[in-house]
Amino acid sequence: MSTESVFGAVHLGYLVIETNRFTDWRRFGTDAIGMHHDALSRDVMRFRLDDQECRFLLRRGPAEDVVATGWHIDDHASFERIEARVRAHGVPCTEGSAEEAALRGVERLLRFPGPKGITQEIYTTPVASSEPLRMLSSGWVTGDSGMGHVAITSAKPARLRGYFDTVFDARLTDCIEETISGVKLKIRFLRVNERHHSIAIAAVRGLPIDPVRTRVQHLNIQAESLDDLARSYDRVGELGFDMALSVGQHTNDKELSYYARTPSGFEWEVGWNPLVVDESTWQPTTHQGISVWGHTPVGRTIVDKLEQFRRGGLSLARREDTVPALSGAGVPDD
């Protein structure tokens, strides 16, 4: 098994979402967020952010959740290095069929198990679309930083850090400690390239519970301009979609953003202008509080809070899969 690092060669490329709410998702993605939409069949549709054929693949099914994460790997050597690591730990890998790769707009697709049942997929070459973008947004920031990030809640955060360290050589950028409704949270932010984080892992301190129903708590995409962010924020409200958190600015990556609630229930963050990590000078720190200002909960009632605590209690009886062969004993906080 090669020990050479793949850090910097890994970029968040696409997400696969399973849902039966196609009509709502089309309105949310195109009319509210402002992405390009392609309907491939009654059971499959895609959203684009740029010239890559697929950034979000939505397929019909009951999960109402993100079911797979696609990672763009820069070169074949890094791809094979990751594959060798996964296989060396005894974890099965499955080559994607030509049809599956075409749906994702990629070449050389490989998948393997990931934490919380989210399949991890890697690919080498994204397919560029010749079709001009039709979207309300003027553009989205992708490129070397990838297309955004995913945030996951976990009762076993050290194991999840271990998983992404083993597979992608992920680095800890920083942490945030926050108290929400009397519950103390610690959020760890992991990067695999220059983006401040591609993965965020949130955990309740001192309690092995997971208060979120969905596998992914939220996902993030980055608007090209502040005007794009503001206009999409207005459209979300005008079209009647639920807002989770109002516009605010984060303490750690300084990103300006808001959080809308998707038709499937998890949250969708639209952000603007996060800082870029300088590897030569960066040192992990811990911030107190998620936001410098804003990010005020919208429309949250005591019933919602009680339901979240109920879900947390139920999670005690639910086994959280961390893929032990890859997560090992985990990576403790520094």
Blueprint of the fold:
Layout: E1 10-19, H1 22-33, E2 36-39, E3 44-48, E4 56-60, E5 65-73, H2 76-88, E6 94-95, H3 98-104, E7 106-107, E8 110-112, E9 119-123, E10 125-126, E11 148-153, H4 157-168, E12 171-180, E13 183-191, E14 199-204, E15 218-222, H5 226-238, E16 243-250, E17 256-261, E18 267-272, E19 286-288, E20 291-294, H6 302-315, H7 324-327
Description of the molecule:
By secondary structure, the chain is α+β, with helices and mostly antiparallel strands. It has seven helices and 20 strands. The protein has helices spanning 22-33, 76-88, 98-104, 157-168, 226-238, 302-315, 324-327, and strands at residues 10-19, 36-39, 44-48, 56-60, 65-73, 94-95, 106-107, 110-112, 119-123, 125-126, 148-153, 171-180, 183-191, 199-204, 218-222, 243-250, 256-261, 267-272, 286-288, 291-294. The strands form three sheets. Strands 19-12-13-14-11-15-18-17-16-20 form a ten-stranded mixed β-sheet, covered by helices on one side. An eight-stranded mixed β-sheet has the order 2-3-4-1-5-9-8-6. Strands 7-10 form a two-stranded antiparallel sheet. A hairpin with a 7-residue loop joins strand 3 and strand 4 (56-60). Helix 1 (22-33) crosses helix 5. The longest helix has 14 residues, at 302-315.
SS content category: alpha+beta
Number of helices: 7
Distance between the amino and carboxyl termini:
26 Å
Shape: globular
Strand order of the largest sheet: 19-12-13-14-11-15-18-17-16-20
Biggest sheet features: 10 strands, mixed
Helix residue percentage: 10-25%
> β content, as a range?
25-35%
**Record field, number of beta strands:** 20
- The overall pLDDT, averaged over residues, is 92
- State the order of secondary-structure elements, H for helix, E for strand: EHEEEEHEHEEEEEHEEEEHEEEEEHH
